[in-house]
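Researcher: Re-running this chain for the archive, since the previous output was lost when a drive failed. Same request as before.
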Amino acid sequence: MTKAIGTLLILGASGDLASRLLLPALGQLLTGRYERRLRLVGAGADDLSPDQWRAVVAKSFATVEASGAGVEHLLATTVYRRADVTRPEEMQGLLDLCEGVPAVHFALPPTVTGLVCDALAGLELPAGTQLALEKPFGFDEKSAVRLNASLATLAPEDCIHRIDHFLGRSTVNNLLGLRFANRIFEPLWNNTHIERVDIVYDEQLGLEGRAGYYDRAGALVDMIQSHLLQVLAVLAIEPPATLGAADLRDAKGIVLRATRVRGGSPTRSSRRARYSAGVVAGRPVPAYVDEQGVDPANETETLAEVTFEINNWRWAGVPFTLRSGKALAERRREIIITFKPVPHLPVGLTGHEAPTVLRIFLAPDEMSLELNLNGPGDPNVLERVSLGAVFGPGQLLAYAEVLEGVLDSDPALSVRGDVAEQCWKIVAPVLAAWREGKLPLEDYAAGATGPADWSGLG
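Model: Regenerated structure tokens:
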């Protein structure tokens, strides 16, 4: 039986990710029915006094109204150390501050994560130590393979959590519940009835000071290679026997091993663009190349769109188009499932003849089913109607849901090592074609829906 986690050790604790996402998530897990006793050890490059560190933690906890004995205990016992976490002796010192079995959270860039793994290689980790890593997992397939090999020397696979907060329990359960708990959907969930699937994650936000990471990643790596391929996998899996880690992760792995760029041609199945100066929601946005920290020579895309196919019995022939971008006209976070048109419409029925469309919105999680129904006037004239529903929002932030899995030693919501490698393999042809200049880097004004000649999705 796995021992309970006694300490959360955050590497990169003085960074934005920790204060904005990780610490609020932890606060939720210390509050109410989730309450637990936990020691928090923070390590970072900044020099913070004990009072300054407690103030950082308390401020993050306040954003989720965290309270109770668990919060008080953590604030009273938490410690912070300025440390070079790539040095074995300093990592040993941090581990010595931990009580019980630790969970080590790498809130670090992938290059630094690899160096920390090297530093840990000569140390003895307590049995049951959990390792949690932020995306991107490596920067290409080869680096992901190397990082997996390093991690395998430190802990067994079930103790390694490759974090993707898009796999928060509510989102996964909502998708699986909609499909598998309703007999009306599963018989139609295949290439006989579905014309295409679009997964869109458009943001109005621009770079927002993230040039250090984003200018080396771009929209394809930042969103499609990681988050959106995971959503595709959950949407397209075969029915798992249980929602346990083994069954759920096996099912996702099978789907992603069958996924590739449509037609094997990145030049025909992908496109990329970058925003120029414009106005988003009344707010002026400078051109991406003029943002602080951006190197125009990188030719980083801020809008990416790739069409994939899943070469199996269920999905053969159905295009899955994944799109994500920044500084766009509207915030769109949705899955659009477009069904095939009816084979024949009785003579005499007129009006809307568009196919049925199921839209699943992410954050907040809602759905609508767009249908053709007889209107209130002439019974022979069809009108478009939409049936809507709101999913349960979940009791935790998505980040808290995945962090709960780390602290409970449950990897069901984390990305397995082979799947992390496979996601890089899927997009590798696109990245190669873009690096070789085989597709133009198009332009769109901030606040537009994309380049003028791009057709919209859904």
